[in-house]
Write a structure and sequence with these properties.
Farnesyl Diphosphate Synthase, globular, 70% helix, 253 residues, mainly alpha
Length: 253
């Protein structure tokens, strides 16, 4: 499994590994339907209907793979609804608007994973898992600015771009001057705060589940540090970590 989540998933015992892998495949499927210049609304709505039919067999292999793990449908529906937002808009005016998008497309995945991780206190764990998911999505948004631009999307909040003096023409041209650096540093500090908050989840998990979550967080913090070290120039080269760099990032968390 070639992703920033593969290492963490492999640390889980078999049943939990199967559950998180099924969730990962579902999330990737949703993302693939949304990550197009024209997202597939019809397919996403059909997928949403299949999720609502769980735990009955739906005929959709990706959805049916979730049934054995008793994952609540609410976060799964949130995830699809987040993808449907990409059918309706390509810009966000404020962080509050963007945070709701991030909550649906990533925070909801964190909440869904709790059915597999089985924390000792589900009520305390849910907001922490959501914050962790939002943090990872914020880092994804920073990393993927050029890719999203090619899809006609800008996820950096418009009011913050205006405050720091970064226009869409700067994104188009790949300008990385002081204004861009200040805007991205603002995004980075917010991500770091959310990440620190989300790591409060670890004491509520068993050792191997905590190691899995820690690996996700460590790798994404490593990506954030790499972007910062490069002056947030995400245009010339897509941020990515080698296997060794991933291991070091997890160990350093």
């Amino acid at each position: 499994m070639k992703s920033n989540f593969a290492l963490g998933i492999m640390l889980l015992p078999r049943r939990k590994r199967r559950g998180v892998s099924a969730l990962y495949r579902f999330a990737r499927h949703v993302d693939d339907l949304a990550d197009r210049p024209l997202p597939d609304r019809e397919a996403l709505e059909a997928l949403r209907a299949s999720v609502l039919a769980l735990p009955k067999p739906t005929g959709d292999a990706v959805v049916d793979a979730l049934a054995p793990f008793s994952i609540p449908t609410a976060p799964l529906v949130d995830l699809v609804d987040g993808a449907l937002m990409d059918c309706e808009r390509s810009r966000y005016e404020t962080w509050e608007e963007l945070r709701e998008y991030c909550r649906r497309v990533a925070g909801a995945v964190g909440v869904a994973c709790l059915a597999v991780f089985e924390p000792v206190d589900r009520q305390r764990a849910e907001p922490l898992a959501e914050s962790l998911g939002v943090a990872l999505q914020q880092i994804n948004i920073m990393r993927d600015v050029p890719e999203d631009w090619r899809l006609g999307r800008v996820y950096l909040p418009a009011d913050e771009r205006e405050r720091f003096g970064v226009g869409e023409e700067d994104i188009s041209a790949g300008r990385t001057g002081p204004e861009w650096h200040a805007l991205m540093e603002h995004q980075a500090r917010r991500a770091e705060g959310l990440l620190a908050e989300g790591l409060g989840l670890l004491p509520l998990l068993d050792r191997r589940s905590a190691l899995c979550v820690r690996s996700f967080a460590g790798i994404y913090r490593g990506l954030l540090r790499q972007m910062r070290a490069r002056g947030y120039d995400v245009f010339r080269e897509r941020p990515r970590l080698s296997a060794l760099a991933k291991a070091r990032s997890v160990a350093a968390l």
